[in-house]
Give the backbone structure.
Amino acid sequence: MNDKFRYSNKKRKGIIFVITVLFLISLIVTSNGNSKIISFGGNVIATITTPITKVIYFTSSKVIEGFEFVFGSADMRRENSELSLENIKLKEEVENMEKTIDNQEYLKDEYELIKNSKLNLIKAYITSLDPSNIYSRFNIDKGSMAGVKEKDTIVQGVLNEDDVIVEGLVGTVTEVGLNFSKVTSIMDGSNKVSFKISRNGEIGVISGGDGNIINGYMYESGASIEVGDSIYTSGLGGIYPPNLYIGKIKEIVEDDAVKKKVVIESPVNFKNMYRVLVLNNEQEIKDE
């Protein structure tokens, strides 16, 4: 029974195969004289495949559009690259113009200080910063070849309480090379700077700071100080010469029973410096 069924099924497949071959042969023969048949066949194939090709085309087009949207065509990418370079150049020019404008007053103060000072002040550019803290420590482009020595004082030209341009304290030289020096500013907490109140001579110490805000405290908890008092270096400790301008007291903190803390506003912006002046400590600074 099973053998007969398999034989019958095989015979049926053979007949279908023969009919299909004969149909294709007749189609080829008759098509040579009738283009309509070819057209009909093509239309059938196109009808069947069109939905598929439509999906493929739509998908591939969207992929290409998405790629060009994100990455751009070759021309677009080239134009974007040129525009990006142009924008960077324009941004640098704007930043340089803004920096020049921002520093016009500073340059004027520096010029006036050098012109009117009897001291030998060496102009130096800041070349690099300690990455651990902005302008806490930095390098300048002048060294022993320019006459710079260790413990020389770094200053800028600033206006004091009387609107007179004087030496504003920045820091001290800690290491000297042939054409460079390392500077530690008064913003460094380890650089203890002794100061005095100009009004009454009360003594205090700077304990660090940030930007143009300096923190400090008075030696005596009962020291007579007021907001707006001007402070100068005291000359104690032998690190800094006396009478260099530091700033004005901005705030007095009364929450410490042992130390009277003060907040000092410096005329020097320690977050926006690019040039300083080197003052040789051996030079006598005239008392104000």
